[in-house]
Amino acid sequence: MTVTPESLSDRVDALEVLLFDLDGTLIDTIEMIMASARYATEVVLGEALPDDVLRHNIGVPLVAQMEEYAPGRSAELLKVYREHNARVHDEMIREFPGVDGALRLLLARGYRMGIVTSKSRPVAQRGLDCFGLRDLFEVLVGYEDTMVHKPDPCPVLEAASRLGVSAEKCLYCGDSPHDMEAGIAAGVLTAAALWGPFAERVLEPGPDFALASMDNLVDLLGEGEKRYRLQGSLRNRPPA
Fold this sequence. Notes:
Structural class: alpha/beta
Order of helices and strands: HEEHHHHEHEHEHEHEEHH
Number of strands: 8
Oligomer: single chain
Distance between the termini: 5 Å
Number of helices: 11
Strand content: 5-15%
CATH superfamily of the largest domain: HAD superfamily/HAD-like
CATH class of the largest domain: Alpha Beta
Helix content: 40-55%
Strand order of the largest sheet: 5-4-1-6-7-8
Mean pLDDT: 88
Radius of gyration: 18 Å
CATH topology of the largest domain: Rossmann fold
CATH architecture of the largest domain: 3-Layer(aba) Sandwich
């Protein structure tokens, strides 16, 4: 069945829950992640891997990233990465402009919100606490909470289950193609955050919406002219 702008609009009207990826979507940790990955590969492998290699799988669990960098040496890489990341975390982390205000406005409109991330829960909570965002979210599904991870839909479905809602009443916003693949497979609406590091690749899975800023999400979930202008950014999934 082809997804039409009209059917998408109906689904937007029915939304109750907004789910978000964390890194590259709500908080800007990309340079911190890259710095820790450069450090770990240089210390363990003797030379930092190229940035395009280090950036490619941001968004999947760290152990999978490290195994891709050097098969069989993921444990060493992960240990050094985590030590470096813990040292520089609070100094290097940044919040994307407009995130706090947009989230609080959406919460005031009655949307329930959750985080779906491949990070461990304690590290994710540390990032949220840096900007006073933790209390805005009812659930946080992290690495420890599912047996399989993005791009598998399981983490997204776990968040919906914990909130007691069906996938059809959820939207997932993320910056990576892994986020969009997980959301599409879960049957939720998907919104690509184009302000992250995957501005081109995040669109490849065919998300429902492409957003240039958090303000776009606020407008999409509002009423009137601005909302319908955003249909020009709509990207339909291929017919099923």
